[in-house]
Design a protein that fits this description.
Layout (H helix, E strand, L loop, with lengths): L2 H21 L16
Amino acid sequence: MDKDILGEWERSHSIMVAAILCDHNQPMHLQPRNDHHQG
């Protein structure tokens, strides 16, 4: 895989994970709508 693409995916994934972790401390209505894609 192209390193640039992989790096971009890693950044996006890290941001997504951080958002999911943050959402655990937030009210339910603030959780991402695509949460069911997790795992």
